[in-house]
């Protein structure tokens, strides 16, 4: 063998042995400093899926302060979320850190997880909050905006945070920031929806109270006076010496009495508080006498034990749906069915009329100023129920109301 080739092969072998020794030494050093290697990719997939499926802030806080730190052997972790000019601790901690804190600004400017050392350690020491226990700071960034701060304590057995750990924490924190922002927007929208529903409930309550007051005053005042006038006219006509025919006047007075009674009944059905089923039947019978299409009702329920608010909402929804069917559907038949199941009460109002030409799009009706259907749905929501409207041209319309028992 040529001596040059021999020395070349010997050099290559020496380099390989040196490289292997260096890698083994580096591996032992990393194990000594960072501990057993962690499968960051698997953890990222696992926790990424969990975060993506969370709908509450509590779930994100639990994952960031308990589950994810446990994978790194960290026993102490705190999540701070931005509120105004402060970062406020989530959960039971009362830790508060100003957003203008020098260490916060330092970490946020980098946008990535950082070990507490050097400059960051000096900045933490300058603050008033007790943060000396922290070993890693992880910003929750949404673009250039700081949404929160994730503080982690020291790892078990004194291991340090590896660069891969910091990259993993940064990625996880960015996913959490997106989810937290989505949750916050959803909570704000729900808060606005709750406020709107409370305002609607207040308006409905005020309107029903006013209806009850008007019905009572009309019934106890004007109606009684009109009945007294009718009685006096009958008594006057019954006198032998009377030569004036009061028949047309009496007939007009009786019609006025019946009309006024119908108005009082519409304003506040007297049977509603004591017997909602009978009130619904009476409504159907009265509208049946006024409608060209027959209206049938079937009640497959025992005594309805519902609150007065629920009974009133069911009645008003049925009233609005029947009026719509009578006035707009051009139906040959209308049917009402009330069924009580163990867990819910279901009312369906069906007609075989022309249907809704452009479909049951609630937003279109609201835009056109037709608020009856929107009011029906709001009333259903107000009592914890759900209202569904199904309609198609030439196939009629079905209104389905379900209220949990």
Sum this structure up briefly.
By secondary structure, the protein is an alpha+beta fold.
Could you walk me through the main structural features you see in this protein, from its secondary elements to its overall organization?
The protein is of the alpha+beta class and 405 residues long. The chain has helices at 3-34, 40-52, 57-71, 102-110, 118-126, 163-238, 247-267, 276-290, 308-329, 362-367, 372-382; strands at 77-83, 86-89, 96-98, 114-115, 134-142, 145-153, 295-300, 334-340, 344-351, 386-391, 397-404. The chain has two domains: 40-189, GAF domain (Beta-Lactamase); 271-404, Histidine kinase-like ATPase, C-terminal domain (Heat Shock Protein 90), CATH 3.30.565.10. The chain starts with a helix and ends with a strand. The strands form two sheets. It has a six-stranded antiparallel beta sheet, with helices on both faces. It is elongated and about 150 Å long.
What are the secondary-structure elements, in order, as H or E? Answer: HHHEEEHEHEEHHHEHEEHHEE
Terminal-residue CA separation: 96 Å
Q: Count every helix, treating DSSP H or I runs of 4 or more residues as helices.
A: 11
Category by helix and strand content? alpha+beta
Task: Please outline the helices and strands.
Layout: H1 3-34, H2 40-52, H3 57-71, E1 77-83, E2 86-89, E3 96-98, H4 102-110, E4 114-115, H5 118-126, E5 134-142, E6 145-153, H6 163-238, H7 247-267, H8 276-290, E7 295-300, H9 308-329, E8 334-340, E9 344-351, H10 362-367, H11 372-382, E10 386-391, E11 397-404
Features:
405 residues, 2 domains, 11 helices, 57% helix, 17% strand, elongated
């Amino acid at each position: 063998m040529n001596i040059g080739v021999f020395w070349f092969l010997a050099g290559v072998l020496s380099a390989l042995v040196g490289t292997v020794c260096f890698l083994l030494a580096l591996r032992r050093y990393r194990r000594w400093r960072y501990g057993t290697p962690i499968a960051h990719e698997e953890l990222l997939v696992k926790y990424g899926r969990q975060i993506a499926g969370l709908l509450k802030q509590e779930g994100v806080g639990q994952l960031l302060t308990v589950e994810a730190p446990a994978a790194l052997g960290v026993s102490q972790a705190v999540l701070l979320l931005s509120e105004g000019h402060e970062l406020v601790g989530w959960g039971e901690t009362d830790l508060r850190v100003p957003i203008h804190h020098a260490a916060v600004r330092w970490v946020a400017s980098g946008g990535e997880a950082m070990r507490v050392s050097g400059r960051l350690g000096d900045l933490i020491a300058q603050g008033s909050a007790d943060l000396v226990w922290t070993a890693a700071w992880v910003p929750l960034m949404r673009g250039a905006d700081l949404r929160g701060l994730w503080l982690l304590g020291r790892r078990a057995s004194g291991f340090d945070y590896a660069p891969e750990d910091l990259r993993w924490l940064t990625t996880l924190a960015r996913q959490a920031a997106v989810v937290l922002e989505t949750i916050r927007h959803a909570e704000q929208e729900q808060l606005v929806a709750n406020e709107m529903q409370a305002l609607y409930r207040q308006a409905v309550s005020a309107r029903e109270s006013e209806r009850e007051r008007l019905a009572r005053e009309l019934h106890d005042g004007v109606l009684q006076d009109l009945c007294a006038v009718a009685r006096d006219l009958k008594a006057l006509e019954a006198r032998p010496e009377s030569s004036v025919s009061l028949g047309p006047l009496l007939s007009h007075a009786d019609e006025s009495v019946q009309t006024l009674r119908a108005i009082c009944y519409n304003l506040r059905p007297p049977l509603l508080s004591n017997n909602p089923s009978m009130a619904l039947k009476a409504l159907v019978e009265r509208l049946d006498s006024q409608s060209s299409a027959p209206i049938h009702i079937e009640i497959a329920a025992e005594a309805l034990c519902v609150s007065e608010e629920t009974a009133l909402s069911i009645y008003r929804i049925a009233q609005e749906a029947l009026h719509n069917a009578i006035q707009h559907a051009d139906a040959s038949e209308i049917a009402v069915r009330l069924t009580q199941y163990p867990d819910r009460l279901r009312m369906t109002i069906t007609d075989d009329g022309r249907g809704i030409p452009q479909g049951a799009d609630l937003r279109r009706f609201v835009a056109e100023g037709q608020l009856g259907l929107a009011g029906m749905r709001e009333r259903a929501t107000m009592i914890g129920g759900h209202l569904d409207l199904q309609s198609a041209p030439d196939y009629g319309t079905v209104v389905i109301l379900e209220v949990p028992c």
